[in-house]
Amino acid sequence: MARQLKIALIPGDGIGGDVVREATKVLDVVAGLADLTIDYTSYDLGAARYLATGELLPDSVVADLKKSDAILFGAIGDPSVAPGILERGIILQLRFVMDYYLNLRPVRLFPGVRGILADKSSQEIDMVVCREGTEGPYAGAGGTLRMGTSGEVVTEVAIHTHFAVERIIRDAFERATKRRNKVTLVAKTNVLVHSGSLWMRTFEAVSTEFPGVETDYCHVDAAAMYMLTTPERFDLVVTDNLFGDILTDIGAAISGGIGLAASGNIDPSGKNPSMFEPVHGSAPDIAGKGIADPTAAVLSMAMLLEHVGEDEAAGWVQSAVAEDLLTRSGQQRGTREIGDALADLASRGQMKA
Ligand code: IPM
Ligand code: MN
Fold this sequence. Notes:
By secondary structure, this protein is an alpha/beta fold. It is 41% helix and 23% strand.
């Protein structure tokens, strides 16, 4: 009997809808081949709903999302809404309420893709960043006193708990054993001494459980430089929420651009359905023009399939993307054309296997 998968879609704002549509097109093709029945439900979160009703992420939507097997997210953000409202109210709120403590961001230069680092090959740019997803300065601790006066005082406090630091570090070590057995901790122990010490001591403690895994440490500023000069030194990188945010944009830049960067918001405990999203934003300037690259959304969907145990279907999608990227240079194609090409390549995946 066909396996049933309940997939929640949150297209969101801007190009989110365009790229999610192409990702589901590809999913439909591989689902057919893998004998999967996909039951989609789409949720209209984002600027339009907020402007019409004032709602960001209603509890009823969260309760519904929790019934799905996995979530595919497009992008959130619109110039008609003040910065921070949609981001904090929807995407960050989802990361908190679903306890997505692992923000998993592969950084991989596919063969055939011309990266900005002309002297680096696809073997040299192949790492995974395990970004902590629930704490750091993102936790929302802070406030403003005497706003708008010359006496204005603001605080923006970073939260780091032993509990959260330990679980993300342990997850990174476990993942490292399935890759090249090397984990690099990125922090700023020379300046952020309180959090740096907690991360370092926890890293050292967890490392004793994984004697076969080599450990390395970089300050975040040096890590930013090494990502551009010697990315091959990194395999598994574990870091906090803000450093991970910044480093993964560098990661996207060195691996073919933000149009290719995929990610997963993961609750490794499996209590909540995990959510997969392209790293790019809503790009309101090109929304509706049909020119956004859906590849990052399609690759995020491949991560979703892998997460729910559909490794074969995930592999077909990844191979389709790899094949398309190999021959893509110089071609001018729109969102739909790329989606069609990927769907077509994915449909042939099974025959090659
Ligand atoms: C990302 C984004 C988000 C973040 C924003 C939109 C809140 O930049 O997913 O990397 O900072 O985490
Ligand atoms: Mn970011």
